[in-house]
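Notes from the 1:1 (GR / supervisor)

We went over the backlog. Supervisor wanted to see one worked example end to end before approving the batch request, so GR pasted a single chain during the call. The sequence is below; no edits were made to it. Supervisor asked that the structure be written out right there so they could see what the output format looks like.
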Amino acid sequence: MAPLALNLQIDALRNLPNLTELPINEATILARIGTFRAFAAGDTIPIARLRSSQCYVILSGLADTVILDRDGEPISIGKLAEGDFFGNSIFFSSHSLLYAVQAQSQIFALQWSIERLHEKKQHLPVFMRLIEASYTQRRAISALSRVPLFSHVSVEERILLAAQLTRQEFGRNTVIFEQGSAGKALYLIEQGQIAVEQHGMIVATLSDGDFFGEMALLSATPHNATLRCLTPTRCLQLPGAVFAEQVAQHPSLEVAVRRVIDERMHHSERVRGDQTRQHLIKVAVRYGMFRGSHVLVRQPAQCPPDCRICEQACAERFGQTRMHLNAAKLEEWDITQSCRQCRVGAECVEACPENAIQWDDNGALRITDACTGCNECVVACPYDAVESQTIYLQNQHGPLWQLWQRMQKQSVQRQPKTVASKCDLCAGYDDRACLSQCPTGSLQLISVEELFPF
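Structure output shown during the call:
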């Protein structure tokens, strides 16, 4: 880059509204590793969920930020202008907050590779603090936007409301509040899964976008359930007084909350009075069926006697089977022992010292070549869905050496290596081996909502 162009980019960065405190040495690094980009009005800029994706700061122009709601529908969460970042959330989370950014006018931006920022982050302390602050604010707005309870609130009001939220993080098995305790706040689940327990019985589970604590606030009575975290969980807490102000300002909000309360009370009564439902929820929690979006199941009644074609097909593709039949029985379904592709708090990811288990864009957790075979993920998985596997790598000598070996009729040596192995939904293939080879269609990858419609 020519010195003049470099100096212009340094000055442009330091004059942006959100970057005025950026030191010149950091601005110089960012200008050197950045790429100037231009987008026309109407362009859609997709946001990838991989570490190889890009981060941007807007130099000029206006854009709209879009996320997906709980039903997968796009919704706007506000505008971006000069000095605003996007694409930076993947730096702090395994999932991008944004689905896309839509240019409302011509946009000029500076783009950085997430990988390059990772390499330079120790030299960019101020910049890292600024993009994390941006991420934190957008995360709160995104959480509010995904909660149906606040669907009637304008984007501008959500932004103001987000400023009054406090963030709390809870570890696995942590009790957020006990049945019978006083209500103090409304909680929004930003990420994680929570069990709702009444008198020691799990009557429901809650996940991203759900809220709780509303009943005690509206009725001024103690909490009627204990809330326990099934995974590491991040919640946004809205003080009871602020919630009361919102209810007073938006009568439709109280109507919506009371509707939810009635539905939840009715659901709890049905579960308490139905042992079959109690058993289904208990099995689902025990085997992690709420941890992902889909579960690999089969209907044994449709299978030929002693049929194991699905396991064999998996083994033929990967060297050993990554799924096992008959892990648990759920009415007419056989729940397989296979990776749940846990959406949050995946124990295997937490345990891996090499960061070798990563999400791909199709929603699967993949074990990368960085795996050293340490077996930490094998031990960590609570569903026995990760196993060790010995694979053989070609000797690293070059092709001429291998040709000489063949001419001398000597076998080309292959080196054994132990790695972790688990189902990744046949990532990289056009089909899923187990499903493709099932002769009856008994084996299915079914959504959690379809398996548990209540």
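Supervisor's comment: The mean pLDDT is 86.
Batch request approved.
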